[in-house]
Write a structure and sequence with these properties.
The chain is of the alpha/beta class and about 625 residues long. The chain has 24 helices and twelve strands. It starts with 7 loop residues before the first helix and ends with a helix. About 35% of the residues are buried.
């Protein structure tokens, strides 16, 4: 009886994918990125050593190709396009800054252009000295930065929301986008294809069409209903988008990974719920992508690679080019940060992997480089990925987020603002109460966590003089709505993250909501309180009692991302009541996982809640 292709090689690769993260965890070699470990395991079981995997196995070829496609999709999905439109945080003071930052987007674009220029210089120099001839390919390989290494490293160090973390991330995003586009043009220029390059515009046109269609479907009530249970229409739609764009990319003569990358960018622009992103990560990094990276290692033939004397020239030269092309442009940041942070940032930006592998594989497929040269490029990327995250962690100063306090500025002096200022001041909250010169209560004195500031008028000059906008939260609580509106506009222009606006006039509510401010209505609060006292008197007592209050914490600390509550390291006088995740409201259990952006509701002692707030919110 005839049998189909053997699945023995597939079983070995899948088993290797299962055991690799377990070995990393048990051997406590956390400095090694999992994808690099998977390549190393592939080298061990592949043709370089044990040779127990058949690299020509059709099962492995299909799954490895799917892994490559899904890796490029997730690379596009990781790009946060909101970063290009965020306002500069240069107005806000920071203890790590020597001077205010300029526009962050312009700064990072300048840094990437510097990286690109130096990459061309190194590539041209290597051609002149006969190290390697293909300048275009070298520019792509030297200038690319791996988001797959940068993002997890920043998350692990809890730096992704800091000013330096945002700069590193945005430079990596720009490099990922630009080098992906360059790689698409490279393959189109040198591939043996009869398709004209202008056909790629068809792919862009369909991408825009799919994005517009996705926006309509994303807001559809029917689609939301079908997104539960066994239907999972959102996941089905994403896979359909990937396959259609991959097929279109191949149809116009481009590489299939370009279609996958564009699909990832489209999904990112549609702002999917965090739960869907976690599901897509699970599909990719749980099955397809490990097979691809292990097969990269299986295909590496190290004995024949090191028999070529060029390996001892090309790999060291590439590593130097990787490092200097990032360190030299990043030196501009010495105007704003200390040398340790800047040097560490340069090393982290040197990490490169996915697109180097993509470029090497594509260049080999179209006959521009040999198998040995492809192996040299991949090996240099692996070495860079092993070294640079370790150096970054050693160099970057520890404890940037240790002093976690929430600075609150309250505008106005009245029977509402003064008691609230007194009640929250202390521990986690540092409060400034700002008032007009007609304030007459001389009994109020400044304390460590509560300060009173009398100003002649609510002008930007007077408020800047007392650093009123150097705050995480600004509360507009004055009795005069005109004052509240003027100061709210000033706070927004200074980049204050949260602006809480007191509204007494119902006619003003819509304007406040349209401006994006958080609304507080004394009239609505009074109605809610009275209704609560009538319907649920014990519940209102619970909410108003400081010892049994219900608190809300937003989970911003990536260290606890994906952690089960039973493994949560904090114990004490506290009970988790509810977790809000997107549109879902979850009752927490021991096996409930915490995710970044979750809103956690809890009750317990105020001191312990404030300790948790410092740890999870990372203000």
């Amino acid at each position: 009886m005839e049998h189909g292709p053997s699945v023995v090689s597939l079983a070995i690769v899948v088993l290797a994918a299962l055991l690799t993260p377990i070995l990393i965890n048990r051997l406590k070699i956390s400095f090694l990125p999992v994808v690099v470990a998977e390549i190393i395991i592939g080298v061990i079981i592949g043709k370089s050593f044990l040779d127990i995997v058949d690299a020509s196995d059709p099962w492995l070829n299909i799954l490895s190709t799917l892994g490559f496609i899904f890796l490029m999709f997730l690379s596009g999905l990781e790009i946060d396009f909101d970063a290009f439109t965020q306002k500069s945080s240069g107005q806000k003071k920071s203890k790590v800054l020597k001077r205010p930052l300029p526009n962050t987007l312009m700064l990072t674009v300048g840094l990437f252009l510097g990286i690109l220029a130096l990459s061309f210089l190194f590539a041209f120099t290597m051609q002149v000295f006969g190290v390697f001839d293909d300048v275009f390919l070298l520019v792509i390989i030297i200038s690319t930065i791996s988001l797959g290494v940068v993002v997890p490293t920043l998350k692990e160090a809890n730096l992704i929301t800091t000013q330096m973390g945002q700069i590193i991330l945005l430079v990596a995003v720009l490099a990922d986008l630009a080098t992906m586009i360059m790689l698409a043009f490279y393959s189109q220029l040198y591939a043996d294809s009869s398709q004209p390059i202008w056909l790629m515009s068809i792919l862009i046109g369909f991408a825009i069409l799919f994005y517009l269609l996705g926006r309509v479907m994303h807001q559809s009530h029917l689609i939301r209903q079908l997104n539960n249970g066994t239907m999972q229409i959102g996941i089905r739609g994403v896979f359909a988008l990937i396959i259609m764009l991959v097929a279109l990319a191949e149809g116009v003569g481009a590489e299939n990974i370009l279609g996958a990358f564009i699909a990832g960018c489209i999904v990112s622009l549609l702002k999917p719920e965090q739960d869907m992103v976690h599901k897509l990560d699970s599909f990719g990094y749980g099955f397809f992508i490990p097979i691809f990276f292990i097969m990269v290692g299986v295909d590496l033939d190290l004995p024949s690679l090191f028999s070529d004397n060029r390996v001892f020239i090309l790999i060291p030269v590439l590593l130097v080019a990787f490092l200097l092309s990032k360190l030299l442009p990043v030196a501009v940041l010495l105007r704003y940060f200390d040398s340790k942070r800047v040097t560490a940032a340069g090393f982290l930006l040197t990490s490169t992997l996915s697109l180097v592998i993509a470029a090497a594989v594509i260049a080999e497929e179209i006959g521009m480089i040999t198998n040995a040269e492809s192996g040299m490029f991949i090996l240099s990327a692996v070495i860079a990925c092993i070294i640079t995250p370790v150096v970054f962690k050693q160099l970057y100063p520890k404890g940037e987020n240790e002093e976690r306090t929430i600075n609150v500025t309250i505008i106005g002096n009245n029977q509402l603002t003064v008691p609230v200022a007194h009640s929250i001041a202390g521990g986690l909250y540092h409060v400034k109460l700002v008032f007009h010169k007609n304030y007459t209560d001389a009994r109020e004195k400044n304390t460590e966590n509560l300060s009173f500031h009398e100003i002649p008028e609510y002008s930007e000059e007077c408020l800047d003089a007392i650093n009123a906008f150097d705050a995480d939260v600004v509360v507009l609580g004055a009795n005069d709505s005109n004052i509240n509106w003027r100061v709210a506009q000033m706070a927004e222009s200074h980049g204050v993250e949260r602006i809480i606006y007191r509204v007494d006039d119902p006619a003003q509510e819509n304007a406040v909501k349209d401006s994006g401010f958080e609304l507080f209505s004394t009239m609505l609060s009074s109605k809610t309180l009275l209704r609560g006292l009538i319907e649920s008197p014990n519940m209102m007592q619970l909410l108003s009692d400081e010892e049994t209050s219900i608190y809300e914490i937003k989970m911003n600390n990536y260290r606890y991302d994906n952690m089960m509550l039973r493994d949560f390291p904090f114990t004490g006088d506290i009970i988790f009541l509810r977790i809000l995740r997107g549109q879902e409201s979850l009752v927490p259990h021991g096996d409930t996982q915490l995710f970044v952006d979750d809103r956690i509701f809890m009750t317990g002692s105020r001191e312990y809640v404030e300790e948790l707030k410092r740890e999870l919110e990372l203000y």
